[in-house]
Structure prediction request, 190 residues.
Amino acid sequence: MSTRMLSRRAARRATYQDVLDAPAHMVAELVDGSLHLQPRPAPLHAVAYSSLGDELVSPFQKGRGGPGGWWIIDEPELHLGGDVLVPDLAGWRRDRMPTLPETAYFALVPDWVCEIHSPSTRKFDLEEKRPAYAREGVGHMWLVDPLARTLEAFALEDGEWAPVGSAGNGEPVSCPPFDAISFPLDALWP
Prediction:
């Protein structure tokens, strides 16, 4: 293939059709017109987000032992501006999204997102997705690192991410917007 053909191909903005055409074993996302493909999460990563969802769904989605009033969704496909993002978890306050959409994606900006870092996704999560979430007005973001066994929580303030809490392994997690409850961070690891 010629250099000219490669540069034309590289200059083409990816579209949602590229997401749909991605291999089924990959997570496909669009950020600023570029297609990003990541392998499906490894077991340690998947256990962390499944366990975090378990900690949050009962008190915040179902109102058992907590205030309720949220939708907590695993791997939702978000269509925000021209981007297609797939956070590990996202949450919407029900007063903003009383019912779930009938589409296969969410066009409403979530109130909270969580990214579970892995060696293959950490840079993308921090350098591409985090600024996109800020630009779109996501109110809260958690970053969980199963290898370091840490959680960092941020709130969006004046378009920038401000730290609002953190926990290391064995420490309790009680961070906005879910600070109505507490759970041990080590509950996220196998």
Q: What stands out?
A: The chain has a mean pLDDT of 92. The helical segments are 3-11, 16-20, 43-61, 122-136. Residues 43-61 form the longest helix (19 residues). The chain has four helices and twelve strands.
